[in-house]
Amino acid sequence: MRIHSFAILSVTALLALSGCANKKNKQYAGVDGDYVSGTPLGERTEGANFMGANVQRGLYAPVQFGYDSSAVAPDQESKVAAVADALKGSGKTVIVAGFTDERGTQEYNRSLGEKRALAVREALIAKGIKANTVQTVSFGSEMPVDPASTEAAWAKNRRAEFGIVK
Fold this sequence. Notes:
Blueprint: H1 2-25, E1 35-37, E2 55-57, E3 63-64, H2 77-87, E4 94-99, H3 106-126, E5 134-140, H4 151-157, E6 159-165
Helix pairs in contact: 2-3
C-alpha cells in the first residue's frame, strides 16, 4: 500500500511540475514565439506580428538606449514625439519592439528588451497615444542591426523600433 501511495504521489508531483514547466516555456509565447504584450504590466498576450506583412517598419527612427538601461534618454524623446504626433487620433496600432546587444543571457536580454519597449510605450501614452493602440514585443538580442561584436555595433543594437499595423 505504501509503495502504491508513493507511486501515485510521485506521478502527481511529476504532472504538477510538468504543468509549471509548460507555463514557464510559454513565458515569451506570442506570435512566432516572440514576447508580445499590450499592457504596461507585461502580461503575456497574443498580438500583431511585428515581422508580418501587415506591419510597416522603418517609418520612424529607432529609440537608442544606453548600456543596461531601459530609460528613454532626453536626446531620444524627439523620436518618440515624432511617432506620437503622426499617430495621434489616427486609431492605428503601433508595435514597439525592444532589442538589446548580444551581451547577457537570452532571458536577461528578453527582459531588458521588454523593459525598453514598455518604457517607449509609456512615453507614447504620456504624449497622448491611447494605451489600447500600443503593443510591445521583445526580441532581446535577436535581429541585430550590426552583427559585429564591437562597442559601436552594440550601441546600434540597443534600441526600440516602431511598427505601424496597416
